[in-house]
Each structure stands twice: as C-alpha cells, then as structure tokens.
Amino acid sequence: MKEIARLGLILMLICAVAAGSLSYVNGITSAIIADREEKEKIAQMQKLFPDVATLEDKTVDGMTATIGLDGAGKMVGLLAEARTEGYAGTIRFTLAVDGSGKIVGVNILSQSETPGLGDKIKEPAFLSQFVGKTGKDPITAGQDIDILAGATVSTRAMASGVKKALAEILVRFMGAEAPKQPTFNPSALKDGKYTGTADGFKSDIKVEVTIVGGKITEIKVLEHNDTANFFKMAEEEVIPRIINKQSVEVDAASGATGSSKGIMQAVLNALAK
Fold it and tell me: Using CA atoms, how far apart are residues 220 and 178, in angstroms rounded to an integer?
C-alpha cells in the first residue's frame, strides 16, 4: 500500500509539473501570437489606407474594429476580425472596409481546412473576389464567388462569413440601418404549398411547406446535397419541432447545425414571401 501511495504521489507531482509547464509555455506563445497579429494589423492598415494618421480601437456590441482616421479626424477605413465555421473548424479572418463601406481586403488569420483543398481560401486569388463588394452587392458561393474545387463547404463558409461580417460592420461602425429580419404568421397565410431555399452546410436546401387552416402541417425537403447522415438527423429532428412549435425558432440537431439552420431558414424564406 505504501508503494502504491508513493507511486501515486510521484505521478501526481509529474502531472502538476507538466500542467504548470504547459500553462507557462501557452502563456508565452499566446502573447507572442497576439503581438504578431497586432503588428500585422497595423501594417495591413497602413498598406490599405495610406492616408491614415491615427488608429483607434472601438468595440460595439461585442465586435471590435481598428478605425483609421485622417489628419482631420475623418474615417478613412477600418479593420475588424470575424469568424465563420468551415469544414474542419473555425476560420478567423479580418475584413478591411473603406470609408464608403466597400471591402478593400480580406485576410485569413487562422484556419484548419483540408490541406490542398479547403486551405486554398487563404490564397490571394480566392480572397480577391471579395474586394470591391458593398452591402448592396450579393455575396453568394457559386454565383458571385467561385467555388474552390473539392472545397464547397470552405468556400460557402467564407462567402457567408464575409457577408455577415460586412453587414455587422456597416451597422455597428458606419451608421447603416440593420436589415429587417423576415417574419411570418401561419394563421395569416392562405392554404397552399410554399417553397423556399436557403444555404445548408454543403449545398442549397429547398423545401416545400404546406399550410392548412392557418397552420404548418407538412414540410418536405425537395432538394439538398448536404452530407446524407447529418442531414437525415437534421431533417428528422428539426422538421417536427418546427411543425409542433409553428415557428422556425427551434433547437438544431446536435452535430448537424449547418443543415438544421438551412432547413429553418428555407422554411422562413418560403413563408415570409
């Protein structure tokens, strides 16, 4: 028993030392990475906006942007960090917007997409497609943004991520009006079948919604090309929830968030017309 206790104590001390060492190293590397990213941010601002005289950080509703001002105190442009969920995890990127609300640059900070396929989102040839876009322009993968071969999910993630980030920047830092979210009231709709389409995880999802007596009675998926097993989970869980609640504000299927949200949005798009 004494030997077991001694070995246990030794193991505990080894674990404590290892944990402390990892924490120390992580603290050092995190500070180094943060310092490097800060320097890159300043360099990017100076390159994109040569007229910038001063820089200031501003946070609005949880989103932080570095704002560049000219000598007269007028905004020349800004740089904000955003995130989107890709095929293999979170993609962190910065979005640079000039004083008129036009995208002038996109830069990938970190990503873990498939090497040789999804990680091509970091290449200038791909990112340059976003340059010149404004809040009034469509930013859709496969239409306005070329889909990278073998990397549909990564491409769609960047397109939707940039579109969302741009909208948030314009509202929070440039005085634009927040877009009105579509709504619907089943009881006010005529009996019939309504179709709608929205972005899924890998593809567009098209649904047909049946209204009878002012209620959603059936939802059929007409088209999709999402991963079959994950989509089945979303279809089997989300559709009954929408019908039971008569609302698209329902929980997503665990492990199938992208497909779940696509179904919800497609139903909303169908009934909010």
Answer: 32
pTM value is 0.76
Angle at which helices 228-245 and 257-271 cross, to 10°: 50
Rounded to whole angstroms, how far apart are CA atoms 140 and 131?
14
Region 186-271: CATH code: 3.90.1010.20
- Work out the pLDDT band at 46, boundaries 50, 70, 90: confident
Q: Which two tokens stand for residue 248?
A: 């698209």
CATH of domain 45-173: 3.90.1010
Compute the CA torsion angle 185, 190, 195, 196 (nearest 10 deg).
-20
Angle (CA) 161 163 168, round 5°: 95
* Interval 158-194: pLDDT, tens: 999 999 999 999 999 998 888 787 888 999 999 999 9
Q: Please return the burial class of 91, using the count of CB atoms within 10 Å of its CB with bins 0-12, 13-18 and 19+.
A: buried
Distance CA 60, CA 63 (A): 5
Whether the Cβ atoms of residue 121 and residue 112 lie closer than 8 Å to each other: no
Which tens digit of pLDDT belongs to each residue from 118-132? 999 999 999 999 999
Other Cβ atoms closer than 10 A to 16: 10
Domain boundaries, the chain: 45-173, 186-271
Equal fold, 45-173 vs 186-271: yes
Residue 247 phi/psi, 5-degree rounding, is -160, 155
